[in-house]
Amino acid sequence: MEAVGFSIGNKGYIGTGGNYMSGNVLLTDFWEYDPITYQWTQRPNFGGTGRSMAVGFSAGGKGYIGMGGDFSSIAYPDFWEYDPITYQWTQRANFGGTSRWLSTGFGIGTNGYISTGGNFTPTYKDLWEYTPTPTGVNQLNNQMSIAIFPNPSDKIISVSMNEFINSNSNVRILLWNSLGEIVKEESLKQNSNIIDVNNLNSGIYFYQILDNQDMLTQGKLTVLH
């Protein structure tokens, strides 16, 4: 009971919650559902402690679960990120507001949002935005310069980088729409890259530039036709 779920791409995910019929057990197991094969696959357990009434959302191709509580009325502040490619959980920054249960979470593009919920007598209506921060970039980000132009664009964008790309790099750009769907993904090479956006509808898109699984930069792109 009181598990939390989210979707990434065309797959659904569910985890945490409690089993009140068997000794008030708090759960950490985590499952993936494939609607094409109608199959459930167990993935690595949630990275935090067992909890119920947590909040979850997906944004930027990753899943997030956090807060919630246990049977001693403790509300947790921690938040965890799930990578559906590596099947790994990574702890991220704690929730910035008051810890609580039964919040609502959703994602828009690469950012996540949390609102409402309660902590016994107090109930809340504040709204919080979560923005992922680059991880694992280290020296690479200090030596790589990235420019995307023009922005806004009507037909093409140019992605310019300096020459710090080694033979082991897999640098690519991802474009997301406001629904969190990947609408374009292309590999990048050093120096200049031309990306065709003429087939995209007018609107605001979110971009990420990744080197393997490390995020180099992210931002918003406006497409006007």
Explain how this protein is built.
- It is a single chain.
- The chain has one helix spanning 139-143, and strands spanning 4-8, 11-15, 18-19, 25-26, 30-34, 39-43, 55-59, 62-66, 79-83, 88-92, 104-108, 111-115, 127-130, 146-149, 156-161, 171-176, 182-187, 191-196, 203-211, 214-223.
- It has 225 residues and is mainly β.
- It has two domains: 4-130, Neuraminidase (6 Propeller); 139-223, Immunoglobulins (Immunoglobulin-like), CATH 2.60.40.10.
Layout: helices, strands, pairs:
Blueprint lengths: L3 E5 L2 E5 L2 E2 L5 E2 L3 E5 L4 E5 L11 E5 L2 E5 L12 E5 L4 E5 L11 E5 L2 E5 L11 E4 L8 H5 L2 E4 L6 E6 L9 E6 L5 E6 L3 E6 L6 E9 L2 E10 L2
Antiparallel strand pairs: 1-2, 2-5, 3-4, 5-6, 7-8, 8-9, 9-10, 11-12, 12-13, 14-15, 15-18, 16-17, 16-19, 19-20
Structure described in brief:
This protein is an all-beta fold and 225 residues long. The protein contains 1 helix and 20 strands. The chain folds into 2 domains: 4-130, Neuraminidase, CATH 2.120.10.80; 139-223, Immunoglobulins (Immunoglobulin-like, Sandwich), CATH 2.60.40.
